[in-house]
Amino acid sequence: MAPEDVVSRVFGVDRGRVTDATSNTTLAEWDSMGHVNLILELEATYGLSLSPDDTLTMTNVEAIKRVLQSRGAAW
Amino acid sequence: MSRVRDKTGMTHNSLSADLLEQLIKAATKASTTREAIAALTELNTAEAVVWLITNEATARAQCAPRDLAELLDVVVKAGLAGRAGTRAGDLAKLVARYADLAHADTLATVANSLPAVLRNEELVGAVHKTLEREPRHAGLLRVALDHALRKKEMFEAHRLLTRLGRADDSQATLHFIWRKRSVLKPTDRPPVRIALMSSFTIDPLVHYLDLECRAIELEPEIYVTPFNSWAQEIIAETSGLRKFNPEIAFLSVSIDDLVGDLGGLISGDQLEEAGEAAVDRILVAAKQFAEWSDAALVVHSLLSVHREPLGILADRGKPGRAAWLERLNARLADELQKLPRAYVLDMTDVLLRRKGGALDNPKMRHMAAMRLCGPVVGDVARAYTHYIAPIKGLTRKCVVLDLDNTLWGGIVGEDGPHGIRLGGTSPGSEYQEFQRYLLSLTDRGFLLALISKNNPDDALEVIRSHEGMILREDAFSALRINWRPKPENMIGIAEELNIGVDSLIFLDDNPHERELMRQVLPDVLTPDLPADPSLYKATVEALPQLQKLAITEEDRTRTQMYQAKRQREQTRVSAGSLEDYLKSLDITVTIGQVDEASLPRVHQLFQRTNQFNLTTRRYAIADLEAIAGDRGCRLYTLRARDRFGDHGLVATALVRSEADTWRVDSFLMSCRVIGYGVETALLATVGEDARAAGAEKLIGEYIETAKNAPARDFYSRHGFSDLGTEDGVTQWVASLTDANQTLPAWIRREVA
């Protein structure tokens, strides 16, 4: 499952609306609570534990992919 | 490869079987999805999609369903990966066409890849059909939900959201559900105003509690005090909490938030003082709350996420953290008891009973000040409903129990009173534990009643004299031990006890009986019982409808009161609704003659069947082999299945043909399927065969035993006349010239 799929599922938005540029400023559903849920789901989906620093930078899809790749996740 | 152009104008491979074979190979032999996708891209997935749509019959004929499902999955993945030039619409058409065998995941992946407006009726129809097969598939439930929302089917949307929460209880999904609900019109269920006051971030609990309240059919309105201001909200006269005016409030304060240094070595007098001060703060707040509110107040008992700093040396020399917490909690409970409507929620108890996941997620604690995380939040929400349900008057009055495989293991009519499992060791101790729990319900003012399909003498012998039995006759306020439909008995019990059917809970191990009860009497609460009897107690304990806010003297003596006025009345349930239920089961019977493979099972039925057995002749396997080879005999077999599953070979009949008469020597059926009319289907088949062979009459024999009362009226029920009894054998006769044994309308028959 691609990171876009996780973002689409967590926030309940059409898969087609999620691009690299999708961020916590472009999606109303991506609020602080939503961010916590997104981190939990990314960790569960890719079987890894994200550091607090990582979670602070993962505020758009492009950054999420970069961090996930640097942690060895593939999809 | 040669290519042809067909009348749809699409080019595709003319060597269809070859193409199919290559596709299958690529899909099933490749070791990874990536490899399979690569192979399929080379084979031109776009053509494969069109080919599979236009050549459905060939594909289905040449390919095992499981292989085809794999193939569809890989084709879809390759198509969606965008490398194969396929159109999303074609993929949707493809999975909809093969929805009966496609993996639910495949269908969900395609549907979710399309924007909701582009999902056509065919695709949505396939999703609903597949949901019947896989009712808890979260991806498909989301598609169905989108559809309901788009069609503005608000009630359906509410229902699907609740199902989705049961299918996937992750924090993210529960949040999603709650957000979706907030834009829906509220239901017309009774509203309940709930306040959550906490020293930490409790927002996820709102989402889980919302779901759990809806599961007990309430429309919740939940207020959360602003972060870290639970105490201020209780005190300030103009606070949002006071304006909200809750019916019930939950106070969850973490000792870790009140005593700063619990992560370190704080101990001795310092620890004592800090602990007492923390409890004081909670008690002051609780008392202030009680001054202005009539609401029930539920206070979490105190828990610390920090382990004993002394490790295994705790409690050596001086009291450790566990003992300290215990003392604080004891004082909290003592003092709260003095307030009229305050309760303690024992968090240790909640944790003890939860499954999977950790209470404390350190990252979330630091990132979001959240001290309840993950699935445990659902457990807390369920624990909350144990307070909410009785406050809203949802408490039931009477638990109605089945006997066989519910209160003991096995079937008394088959295994005999000494063959059932019930006692101090397993198997049997599970049922005893369950009975002890049920008996404790009578101390809390709940009534118990029995509905069992059994011979009264068999069942009562166990209840009165089995040494493992905890629930004796005087524990039950009403008994219905007979062969009538259970909903009919249920109405009788409600009338006898003079309570509404909506005061009843029905517990039965048999899913068919539960389904029948739900269809005929939806107001009776009929929870599912797990297949494992060791989980019966926990399942029933978890019902919020068995909680009471207080226990009165009348509660303790209620069973005796009802005992005194026990009376029996029977009320007929409308035949229409019973037949509707039977129709809804989609019962199919397959009737054939015994063969080598079925002989052992037929022999077993002859040996073991006691209740629905017309003559109880116990033929040995050698006898049955001889009978099977005898041209003057027919040994029928009947298999039954319905939409809940396959019952297997459940009935058999031995018929001897003589000139113009066919004689039914033996006719027996497993008690598992009593009440569905399959015996009528078998008798009708025998009658038809006899007529076809030129016989004029059918004779049935009946030999009464201590156990076969359920079969006593079999022949009279089917229009036979009594020819009299000789040497214990009653002969019944029916003329074959007028067809009076017909297949029940709700049964479909196949010939083996």
Give the topology, please.
The complex is a heterodimer of chains A (75) and B (752).
Chain A: H1 3-11, H2 32-46, H3 52-57, H4 61-70
Chain B: E1 3-5, E2 11-13, H1 16-29, H2 33-43, H3 45-54, H4 56-62, H5 65-80, H6 88-97, H7 104-113, H8 121-133, H9 138-150, H10 154-167, H11 171-182, E3 191-198, H12 203-215, E4 219-224, H13 230-235, H14 240-244, E5 248-252, H15 255-258, H16 268-292, E6 296-300, H17 321-337, E7 342-345, H18 347-352, H19 362-368, H20 376-391, E8 398-401, H21 412-415, H22 429-443, E9 447-452, H23 456-465, E10 476-481, H24 486-497, E11 504-507, H25 511-520, H26 536-541, H27 553-564, H28 575-584, E12 587-593, H29 599-608, E13 612-613, H30 621-629, E14 633-642, E15 645-658, E16 661-669, H31 678-692, E17 697-703, H32 714-717, E18 721-726, E19 729-735, E20 747-751
Parallel strand pairs in B: 3-4, 3-5, 5-6, 6-7, 8-9, 8-11, 9-10, 12-20, 16-17
Antiparallel strand pairs in B: 1-2, 12-14, 13-16, 14-15, 15-16, 17-19, 18-19
What's the overall geometry of chain A? globular
Class from secondary-structure proportions of chain B: alpha/beta
Q: Which ranges of chain A are low-confidence, i.e. pLDDT below 50, for 5 or more consecutive residues?
A: none
Number of helices of chain A: 4
Largest interface: A-B, 23 and 22 residues
Distance between the termini of chain B: 44 Å
Report Rg of chain B: 33 Å
- Content-based structural category of chain A: mainly alpha
Strand content of chain A: under 5%
Mean pLDDT of chain A: 90
Helix content of chain A: 40-55%
Indicate the proportion of strand residues of chain B.
Answer: 15-25%
The counted number of beta strands of chain A is 0
Pattern of helices and strands of chain A: HHHH
